[in-house]
Write a structure and sequence with these properties.
The protein is of the alpha/beta class. It has one domain: Alpha-Beta Complex (Spore Coat Polysaccharide Biosynthesis Protein SpsA, Chain A), CATH 3.90.550. Helix content is about 30%, strand content about 20%. The protein contains six helices and nine strands; from the N terminus they run E-H-E-H-E-E-H-H-E-E-E-H-H-E-E. The strands form two sheets. It has a seven-stranded mixed beta sheet. The radius of gyration is 17 Å and the shape is globular.
Amino acid sequence: MEFSELSLEIYIVHLLETPERISSCYRQFRSTMLIDSLHIVITEHPHISRFFAKPPSTCMLPGYVPRRLKAQEKSVFYKHAYAIRDIAERNTLGGVILEDDVVVDNKAFHKFLYTLRNTDILKEYDIVYFGNGAHEPSPCGTTESRIMTPDHTLHKSKCADSYVVSKDAAIKISQDYIHYPPFLPVDWDMSLRIGRQGLRVGWLQPGITVQGSQHGMFKSLIQNT
């Protein structure tokens, strides 16, 4: 299959007061030539009109309990929503969204990007989570990563630190924010959107990124607020 002519954008969700995080991202991604554009998402402007204080009972799904979000959780949500909307509006294959504390296996990440550009992954799946989340990193080189489909009834998302979303899915999610405002942290909300929109989800297992804030590399910005 020929290299896709559509772009593949990468978005880093970033808080300006943490220069050590963006420096880490720059060191990791500066030599990756398979990325068309690198976007540092720092905007705090709400691209979501409102958050539900309490969703109508007719909209609630089993297993989702609303709570008041912290200011930092809302800030992160706005940035993810901005990235998703930008993907929806571009002539793009899809977009890779990363949080700024992510630590990647560079060789595996480069291979994953190449696979995205040269296969139909983003036609077969709407969203692919490719990180370990808060879990311990998998030993490099011991197992070949492959995409599997989670069989959970709920919570098909992983942590929102590392995922790729197709353009079509980005359009659906952006429109759904308007009709059904969020009331959960972004990773839980993504499970809700997946269920509401019937999105096809894959997990790259073993994952190829970890959360640096969960492994002592950076201070957690949400857990300490």
